[in-house]
Specification:
8 helices; mainly alpha
Amino acid sequence: MTTSNPAAMIEHYQVLAELEREFPELTPELEDTQCKRNMYRQLSCFARFTNRFIDQQDLAQVRRCFQHANHLWQHGDQRVQAALQNSYLFALHMYQNSQLSMQLRILLGPALTRCAQQLTYAQLP
C-alpha cells in the first residue's frame, strides 16, 4: 500500500485516490461519473473487482484486495468504515463453499471478519 503518511486518517473524499493509487487497473471503472462522486459506489466497484478474484479463486489477488480494505478500515474515518461495511463487505462472495469461505475469512483478517459477522447477525430474525 502506498500512502504518503500511513498513520494519517483517510477521509471519505480520499477513498477514490486511495483505490486508484493501489489498483490502477480499477481506474477505468472508478472514473465512471456515478462512482467518482460517491464513496459507496466506489467501494461497491472495489467489491466487484475483489469478487472477480474470489470467483477465480485467485487468493493472491484476493489477499491484496483484503489488505487494502483493512488499510482503509484501520485508517479510515467513520464514514469510510460505514461504507466499507455497507458497500464492500456486504457485496463480497464470501460463502461460495465451506473451504473457500474459511480461506477468505482468514485472508480478510480479524477486524473485517468481525464486521462481516455483525452484518450477518444483523440480518437474522
